[in-house]
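lol ok so funny story. i was supposed to be doing the assay writeup but got distracted and ended up predicting the structure for this chain instead. priorities right. anyway since i did it might as well share w the group, maybe its usefull for someone
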Amino acid sequence: MNNLDTQIYDFQELNLLQHLGANDLATYSQDLRGRFVTLNTVFSQLLGASEEQILQTGGFTSFCLPEDVERVNINFQRACEGIPQHLESVGLEGITGKRLFVELTNLPIIVDGIVSGIYGIVKDVTERMAAEAALKENSSLNQQIQKMSHLGNWTWDVQLNQVVWSDELYNIYGLDKNSFKATFEGYLELLHPEDRAATQQTIIQALHLQQDVMFEERIVRSTGEMRYLQSWASVTVDVKGMPVKMFGACLDITERKKSESERLALIEELTKTNKDLKQFSYITSHNLRGPVTNLIAMVDLIETAQIEDDRTLKLIHGFKASTHQLNDTLNDLINILIVKSNTNLEMTNLTFSRVFEKVVQSIQSIIEGAHVAIKTDFSAKQMVDFNSAYMESIFLNLLTNAIKYAHPHRLLQITVKSKVAEGKTQLVFADNGLGMNMAKVKDRIFGLHQRFHNHSDSKGIGLYLTHAQLTALGGAITVESQENVGTTFTITFKS
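and the output, tada:
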């Protein structure tokens, strides 16, 4: 071995000896046929055999596990061609049957420019391989846990701006790890636009304050699907107290969010059903107000003093009492009603003129008694898709409202017309009544039980109901008004 040690190796690979650690190296030499020539004590101890026993074997491959024999033979042949070789892991079985794993380096022994043998260097890496196997198993288990729980983790090297994602985090984001390079900037781009600025501020603040943080965020996949994540982040600092890394995890809570939404929707539906019962009572009672008022007016016109038949008088008095009682009941129902939006109403293609005429006829006596001049023009748009009952209620409320708040010193004029603005159908309902001080009442006009004039029959219900009915079906209503000039309501229907 001394003669071999004095030969010229002329390869930088011998520095590998220092890298591997000379104290635990097993070494040997082989001839070009692969038979052992020399070996050291460490190599003998590694295989659990004496030097004589090892030298009598067929060479290094005699101790290799079957699955590694071919790789070792190829490695040996290339070394014989003058090319240093290294294998990270080779399985061996000693004389006693004990299995182990080693790093194998084969260096060509060159004499007078000719390869005359192979110098083998072996390091026992059994414990390292076992640790790596355990780590791999734990990693695999961790991946399975993450996949089952929809939990992904990430690491961000702040100074190098390098980000590493777990496989499950790619799955959560719906991304291919081979085509998407994770970066902090790339991550921000995946956030929902409405969450981007706030989330970025939360993370930067956590870095600045060097504290853990938990937050909720929304991401948008390439398919357009939105997912909800519950995220955590923790910061590590160097000896100078500067942030160096941030570790974090993201839990996909989309399904939980959906369950919460469904639960809230169920609660809302139950609440809606309860309120709809009240709404039905009011719409019925409120829309009957005009006809009942007409009945009361007609009953009061009957001159009972000229009727001599007792049976007829009795019937008239009973009818009169019943009519007033019905009116009182309707008033009570209106006072206790709470309007709730209803998006499941039947929609019909309605003709404005027909619906308006029907409502006018139902309160004809009131209109005649108030001396109202009504002008309509539905030529710009004659029809609209809307709920029939709601449309009648809206016309009734606006008409009776205008009559109720007519200016006492001039003839009440009401103008109702249709128009199209920005592709949407509109109704404009204008009167020259008392009007309102918009600076004082602007934010309260469509509120429940809001009254802006001292009128004995005012309930503060009509405009609230009109607004609720329109918004329930995707429409809107706005108002312009001036005291002692009049009021204009503009209704916009859903396209």
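Confidence is low (pLDDT under 50) at residues 1-22. Residues 147-252 form a domain with the Beta-Lactamase fold (CATH 3.30.450.20).
back to the writeup now i swear
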